[in-house]
Amino acid sequence: QVQLVESGGGLVKPGGSLRLSCASSAFTFSDYYMSWIRQVPGKGLEWVSYISSDASYTNDAESVRGRFTISRDNAKSSLYLQMNSLRVEDTAVYYCASVGVGGYFDSWGQGILVTVSS
Amino acid sequence: ELVLTQSPGTLSLSPGERATLSCRASQSVSSSSLAWYQQKPGQAPRLLIHGPSSRATGIPDRFSGSGSGTDFTLTINRLEPEDFAVYYCQHYDGSSFTFGPGTKVDIK
After folding, report:
1. Which residues on chain A are in Cβ contact (under 8 Å) with B92?
2. How far apart are CA B77 and CA B41, in angstroms?
3. Does the beta carbon of B44 lie under 8 angstroms from any beta carbon of chain A?
4. By CB count within 10 A, which of A108, B3, B87, B96 is most buried?
Protein backbone atom coordinates (compact mmCIF):
# COMPACT_ATOMS: atom_id res chain seq x y z
CA GLN A 1 0.00 0.00 0.00
CA VAL A 2 1.31 3.41 -1.00
CA GLN A 3 2.42 5.51 1.94
CA LEU A 4 3.09 9.22 1.82
CA VAL A 5 4.20 10.96 5.02
CA GLU A 6 4.58 14.73 5.26
CA SER A 7 6.85 16.48 7.74
CA GLY A 8 8.33 19.91 8.40
CA GLY A 9 5.21 21.87 9.25
CA GLY A 10 4.75 24.17 12.19
CA LEU A 11 4.41 27.78 13.27
CA VAL A 12 6.28 30.48 11.37
CA LYS A 13 6.08 34.28 11.34
CA PRO A 14 4.88 36.21 8.29
CA GLY A 15 7.75 36.65 5.87
CA GLY A 16 9.45 33.52 7.15
CA SER A 17 10.35 30.27 5.40
CA LEU A 18 9.58 26.62 5.86
CA ARG A 19 10.48 23.45 3.98
CA LEU A 20 8.00 20.60 3.80
CA SER A 21 9.05 17.05 3.02
CA CYS A 22 7.03 14.07 1.86
CA ALA A 23 8.56 10.61 2.20
CA SER A 24 7.09 7.81 0.15
CA SER A 25 7.16 4.06 0.32
CA ALA A 26 5.58 1.01 -1.32
CA PHE A 27 5.45 2.44 -4.82
CA THR A 28 7.87 3.40 -7.60
CA PHE A 29 8.15 7.07 -6.69
CA SER A 30 10.28 7.93 -9.71
CA ASP A 31 7.50 6.89 -12.11
CA TYR A 32 4.98 9.41 -10.78
CA TYR A 33 4.25 13.08 -11.11
CA MET A 34 3.77 14.47 -7.60
CA SER A 35 1.88 17.41 -6.21
CA TRP A 36 1.18 19.54 -3.17
CA ILE A 37 -2.39 20.49 -2.28
CA ARG A 38 -3.48 22.60 0.68
CA GLN A 39 -6.62 23.12 2.69
CA VAL A 40 -7.44 25.91 5.09
CA PRO A 41 -9.08 24.19 8.09
CA GLY A 42 -12.82 23.99 7.48
CA LYS A 43 -12.48 25.10 3.84
CA GLY A 44 -12.00 23.51 0.44
CA LEU A 45 -9.00 22.08 -1.39
CA GLU A 46 -6.51 24.22 -3.30
CA TRP A 47 -3.87 22.84 -5.64
CA VAL A 48 -0.46 24.40 -4.92
CA SER A 49 2.26 22.91 -7.10
CA TYR A 50 3.27 19.85 -9.11
CA ILE A 51 6.40 18.29 -10.57
CA SER A 52 7.01 15.79 -13.33
CA SER A 53 8.49 12.38 -12.61
CA ASP A 54 12.00 13.41 -13.70
CA ALA A 55 11.71 16.94 -12.24
CA SER A 56 12.04 18.50 -15.69
CA TYR A 57 8.69 20.28 -15.41
CA THR A 58 6.99 22.09 -12.58
CA ASN A 59 4.00 24.37 -12.31
CA ASP A 60 2.59 26.38 -9.44
CA ALA A 61 -0.71 28.02 -8.60
CA GLU A 62 -0.69 31.77 -9.08
CA SER A 63 -1.20 32.29 -5.36
CA VAL A 64 2.24 30.84 -4.57
CA ARG A 65 4.19 31.47 -7.77
CA GLY A 66 7.59 33.03 -7.08
CA ARG A 67 7.41 32.18 -3.36
CA PHE A 68 7.11 28.37 -3.28
CA THR A 69 9.40 25.88 -5.02
CA ILE A 70 8.61 22.21 -5.49
CA SER A 71 11.42 19.69 -5.90
CA ARG A 72 12.06 15.98 -5.56
CA ASP A 73 14.84 13.48 -4.92
CA ASN A 74 14.00 10.22 -6.66
CA ALA A 75 16.94 8.44 -5.02
CA LYS A 76 15.36 9.20 -1.65
CA SER A 77 11.74 8.78 -2.86
CA SER A 78 11.02 12.19 -1.42
CA LEU A 79 9.12 15.32 -2.42
CA TYR A 80 9.76 18.80 -1.07
CA LEU A 81 8.10 22.19 -0.92
CA GLN A 82 10.26 25.19 -0.09
CA MET A 83 8.00 27.97 1.10
CA ASN A 84 9.43 31.51 1.30
CA SER A 85 7.87 34.89 2.05
CA LEU A 86 5.06 33.16 3.90
CA ARG A 87 1.82 35.01 4.43
CA VAL A 88 -0.98 34.58 6.96
CA GLU A 89 -3.17 33.30 4.13
CA ASP A 90 -0.76 30.41 3.53
CA THR A 91 -1.95 28.88 6.81
CA ALA A 92 -3.36 25.48 5.88
CA VAL A 93 -2.94 21.74 6.04
CA TYR A 94 -0.58 20.75 3.25
CA TYR A 95 -0.97 17.37 1.55
CA CYS A 96 1.39 15.64 -0.82
CA ALA A 97 -0.20 13.40 -3.43
CA SER A 98 0.77 11.25 -6.35
CA VAL A 99 -0.71 12.19 -9.72
CA GLY A 100 -2.33 9.60 -11.96
CA VAL A 101 -2.21 9.63 -15.75
CA GLY A 102 -5.46 11.57 -16.11
CA GLY A 103 -4.37 14.27 -13.69
CA TYR A 104 -6.14 12.86 -10.65
CA PHE A 105 -4.61 12.53 -7.19
CA ASP A 106 -4.62 8.83 -6.43
CA SER A 107 -2.69 8.62 -3.16
CA TRP A 108 -2.53 11.24 -0.43
CA GLY A 109 -0.45 11.80 2.67
CA GLN A 110 -2.12 12.48 6.01
CA GLY A 111 -1.35 16.20 5.78
CA ILE A 112 0.79 18.59 7.79
CA LEU A 113 -0.31 21.86 9.36
CA VAL A 114 1.49 25.08 8.52
CA THR A 115 0.52 28.09 10.61
CA VAL A 116 1.72 31.56 9.63
CA SER A 117 1.16 33.97 12.48
CA SER A 118 2.97 36.68 14.38
CA GLU B 1 -9.63 30.38 -15.88
CA LEU B 2 -11.73 27.29 -15.27
CA VAL B 3 -14.24 27.42 -12.41
CA LEU B 4 -15.95 24.31 -11.07
CA THR B 5 -19.28 24.83 -9.31
CA GLN B 6 -20.75 22.09 -7.16
CA SER B 7 -24.37 21.79 -6.14
CA PRO B 8 -26.02 21.55 -3.81
CA GLY B 9 -23.76 22.93 -1.12
CA THR B 10 -25.29 20.54 1.39
CA LEU B 11 -27.39 17.47 0.77
CA SER B 12 -29.35 16.05 3.70
CA LEU B 13 -30.35 12.43 3.18
CA SER B 14 -31.09 9.27 5.12
CA PRO B 15 -29.13 6.01 4.94
CA GLY B 16 -30.40 3.90 2.07
CA GLU B 17 -31.31 6.90 -0.10
CA ARG B 18 -29.62 7.91 -3.33
CA ALA B 19 -27.37 10.97 -3.49
CA THR B 20 -26.92 12.89 -6.72
CA LEU B 21 -24.11 15.47 -6.69
CA SER B 22 -23.47 17.91 -9.50
CA CYS B 23 -20.24 19.47 -10.76
CA ARG B 24 -20.52 22.13 -13.44
CA ALA B 25 -17.54 23.57 -15.33
CA SER B 26 -17.41 27.17 -16.56
CA GLN B 27 -16.26 25.87 -19.96
CA SER B 28 -16.29 22.55 -21.71
CA VAL B 29 -13.63 20.21 -20.33
CA SER B 30 -12.20 16.82 -21.15
CA SER B 31 -14.16 14.19 -19.25
CA SER B 32 -11.03 12.02 -19.05
CA SER B 33 -9.52 14.57 -16.68
CA LEU B 34 -12.43 14.88 -14.24
CA ALA B 35 -12.24 13.21 -10.84
CA TRP B 36 -14.22 12.97 -7.60
CA TYR B 37 -12.93 12.71 -4.01
CA GLN B 38 -14.46 11.95 -0.64
CA GLN B 39 -13.19 13.62 2.53
CA LYS B 40 -14.20 12.78 6.08
CA PRO B 41 -13.42 15.03 9.06
CA GLY B 42 -9.77 14.86 10.10
CA GLN B 43 -8.82 12.73 7.11
CA ALA B 44 -7.10 13.30 3.80
CA PRO B 45 -9.27 13.21 0.69
CA ARG B 46 -9.69 9.85 -1.00
CA LEU B 47 -9.98 9.33 -4.76
CA LEU B 48 -13.34 7.83 -5.68
CA ILE B 49 -13.84 8.25 -9.42
CA HIS B 50 -11.69 9.40 -12.32
CA GLY B 51 -12.05 9.76 -16.03
CA PRO B 52 -15.11 10.53 -15.19
CA SER B 53 -16.64 7.11 -14.55
CA SER B 54 -13.81 4.78 -13.48
CA ARG B 55 -13.87 3.78 -9.84
CA ALA B 56 -10.58 3.89 -7.97
CA THR B 57 -9.22 0.74 -6.37
CA GLY B 58 -11.40 -0.50 -3.52
CA ILE B 59 -14.30 1.88 -4.16
CA PRO B 60 -17.67 0.12 -3.86
CA ASP B 61 -19.90 -0.03 -6.91
CA ARG B 62 -22.60 2.08 -5.25
CA PHE B 63 -20.44 5.03 -6.32
CA SER B 64 -20.70 6.00 -9.98
CA GLY B 65 -19.70 8.98 -12.08
CA SER B 66 -20.99 10.31 -15.36
CA GLY B 67 -21.10 13.36 -17.54
CA SER B 68 -19.36 15.24 -20.30
CA GLY B 69 -18.73 18.75 -21.53
CA THR B 70 -19.65 21.05 -18.66
CA ASP B 71 -21.93 18.84 -16.55
CA PHE B 72 -20.77 15.95 -14.39
CA THR B 73 -22.55 13.87 -11.76
CA LEU B 74 -21.49 11.69 -8.86
CA THR B 75 -24.20 9.26 -7.79
CA ILE B 76 -24.14 7.30 -4.56
CA ASN B 77 -26.76 4.55 -4.50
CA ARG B 78 -28.09 3.30 -1.17
CA LEU B 79 -26.16 5.61 1.15
CA GLU B 80 -24.23 3.79 3.88
CA PRO B 81 -23.42 5.48 7.22
CA GLU B 82 -19.77 5.82 6.18
CA ASP B 83 -20.72 7.78 3.04
CA PHE B 84 -21.68 10.92 4.93
CA ALA B 85 -18.79 13.22 4.09
CA VAL B 86 -17.73 16.08 1.82
CA TYR B 87 -17.28 15.39 -1.88
CA TYR B 88 -15.09 17.39 -4.27
CA CYS B 89 -14.80 17.34 -8.04
CA GLN B 90 -11.48 18.21 -9.68
CA HIS B 91 -10.18 18.84 -13.19
CA TYR B 92 -6.73 18.82 -14.78
CA ASP B 93 -6.18 20.88 -17.94
CA GLY B 94 -2.69 19.65 -18.74
CA SER B 95 -0.82 22.21 -16.68
CA SER B 96 -2.92 23.09 -13.64
CA PHE B 97 -5.58 21.62 -11.40
CA THR B 98 -8.92 23.01 -10.24
CA PHE B 99 -11.13 21.82 -7.39
CA GLY B 100 -14.80 22.53 -6.88
CA PRO B 101 -15.93 23.97 -3.53
CA GLY B 102 -17.40 20.68 -2.33
CA THR B 103 -20.79 19.21 -1.47
CA LYS B 104 -21.44 18.06 2.07
CA VAL B 105 -23.66 15.00 2.39
CA ASP B 106 -25.05 14.86 5.89
CA ILE B 107 -27.53 12.72 7.74
CA LYS B 108 -31.12 13.92 7.65
Report:
1. 102-104
2. 22
3. yes
4. B87
